[in-house]
Amino acid sequence: MDESAGSAQFPLSKDSLRFPRRFLNIRALTSIIIVIFLLNGLLTLGRAPAVGASGPSSLALDGSAVLGCGHSTNSCSTTLTTSHPGDIIIAYTFEALNLQPTNCTFSVSDSAGLSWIFRAGAYGRNDGTAGTTRDQVGEFWARASNPLSSDNVTESIAGCASTIYGGEYNALMVFGISGANFNNPFDSNKSLPATNSSYSNTPDTKISTSNPNDMIIGVAQQTTYPTLTPGSGFTLIFSGGGYSISEYELSSVPISGFPVNYSDGAAFYWEAIGDAVQASTTPDFFISASPGSLTLAAGSSGTSTITVTSLNGFSGTVSLTTNSSGRSQYISKSDHGHRLRDRNLMIAANSNGTYTIQVIGTSGSLSHTTSVSIVVPSGGIVCLTQPGTTTCPQNAASLTGPTGTQLRVSVFTQESGGLNGFDIVLLADHTILRPVAIDLTGTVLLGTPVVVAECLGGILVRGASCNSADTADTLELAATSAFGQPNTPSPTTGLLFTAIYNITGTASNVRLGFQTGCGSSSTPTSDTPFCVDVTNGSPAPVPEYLLGATFTELQALTTSFNGVTFQVESRLTNQSSTSRLVGTVQVTASNSSGGQVIFTRSYSVNVTFPATQMTSPVHTVRFVLLISILRDGILCSSNAISAPLIQCFATYNPDVYNQGQVNIVDASALALAYGSSPGSPHWNPYFDFDLSGTIGIQDVSVVFLFYGASLVT
């Protein structure tokens, strides 16, 4: 692939398409509405919140992700989703087979804007090839006040790029830990963190701790033989194909000289890090904001929900106050220095910029802070969103669709200066979303648009030439208003074009956006040919903020039972690191003959794959979506290999006696009814799951397979 700079060439001079921009001196009025919710209800005037509900009280993993990248790369990204506020996020970074005489410098960043701190590094494999150690591992950490949703975490290396390949092998493991001491997450023992490297088949570090109930965490890399497995007593977090590994163990007492070790079937160079995260044991609380950041056009408003969560039995009263930072001379707001009681914070700014509102929760000597970051762009926003929308979303849009269909994505601009053309390159994994077409119907461009270049998957469809950065993963459109047309009115809000993809693969929270380094919702684009160029007749493109999207395959199923047809749409994610299947399933029930909709509901699913399995060597999780008004259920299952895909069928609710679980009561009654038919003494029609008229082996199998399964309402 040609990675040199370049751009799609317009048949006319770019300068001939640009006209002087008409700048407007607009007073930007942005309303940030902070709505305060607590675990015991809405905060009301004259009443401070008494917080008593329990949050996480012990150390546990909370979400994890891993990705390895090739020799020609200098960064690696993966998405992390967590469930709890107040997590400590650990990131292990890896580099392997360095060919340069200098070590790499690691850095970590993410789309949620966490502050990453380097904690430890281990270096090994000085085999004489490069004049220095060739492999290295780093440990970074960050605090996450709020649960993370598809947070794009990126590990980068610098100072060691191969002159042959342009990069080095690099990788990232990242995971959350709930229940940690948020302010002081690591055990204070002076032996921590511990690093070690050697040539042997016994990788280890030795650590000591000062506290009971720590979580011992470790990571190791051995880059030639894929033989690394967790040490005795440790639980695997991730394995990078056996070449790298991370593990943890929960301790119950302080330890001294404890080996954080690994099993290695081959003697070779290795490097390792050992550390200990300490639990929060005293009564305390978390305060979090969701979302924690908002990108808002001038004159618009946004909402963030502030939640207070108890930890370790905390039951005090929390007072909430606010302050703000940014271009403070332009900010005026109400409630400053007062206790918030479901009041609105009004922010007026006569210049655009980035602002931070801090919400401080205080209870006696305890004080915790969360913040909401607000970006009021000076340029417009180019976003990817659902067709038919009239504004850009506040956060990345979640797009869905079933395999075998097409996904239409609106490339939308909001509050842009007047424009007369654009050159936009979109990026998505072509094995999941294959670019197939572009539609300019409804575009803000004036007259009959002129297509300068249309490139799908790196192939020129029409126009002059493709961008040199186009690949099988890209979709590019360069287009202008009809020749002689003026700029669009300023500011411009509307559709630029519609990108069309064939959905060809199974996916969950796959990134659909722009080229790496193009810009973001808080950093505008520069004059780069690989990203988003919006032109208006001036010598340089208009800076635009960018907001991408995510795509999750929508699995669509149809099943019928007893005259009712059920449409089942699954948006589940396989959280393999925690062995959970998480997400939503939408069910619509309609009359099979007339088509009238009689029931619809979105179910929230969070189920765990069993550790052992009597009925199958492949771990299978089963759950029942209850449809009480029909006394039916949608019985679903998924195994660890095919997840998040599910198989479902409709029948009667197998919890026939409404015990809250398919249990011994149902099994005993079924055994009594076995072999019966209508008119028999023990006949029960609700055990006739296959509507055969006889209680038989097929009906027994339903209760057997779904015995103890989760019932979802």
Number of helices: 2
Give the C-alpha Rg: 29 Å
Strand content: over 45%
Number of strands: 46
Instruction: Tell me the count of domains.
Output: 4
Shape descriptor: globular
Query: Cα distance, first to last residue?
Result: 51 Å
Main sheet record: 8 strands, mixed
Helix content: under 10%
Uncertain ranges? 1-57, 326-351, 613-617
Tell me the structural class: mainly beta
Mean pLDDT: 79
What descriptors fit this protein?
Immunoglobulin-like, 8-stranded mixed sheet, mainly beta, disordered N terminus, 47% strand, 713 residues, 2 helices, 4 domains
Your description of this structure?
The longest helix is centred in the C-terminal third of the chain and has 10 residues. 3% of the residues lie in helices and 47% in strands. The protein is globular. The strands form ten sheets. Strands 27, 29, 31, 32, 33, 35, 36 and 38 form an eight-stranded mixed sheet that branches. The chain folds into four domains: 80 residues, Immunoglobulin-like (Sandwich); 217 residues, no CATH class; 174 residues, Immunoglobulin-like (Sandwich); 159 residues, Dockerin domain (Type 1 dockerin domain), CATH 1.10.1330. The protein is mainly β and 713 residues long. Helix 1 runs antiparallel to helix 2. A hairpin with a 2-residue loop joins strand 31 and strand 32. 46% of the residues are buried.
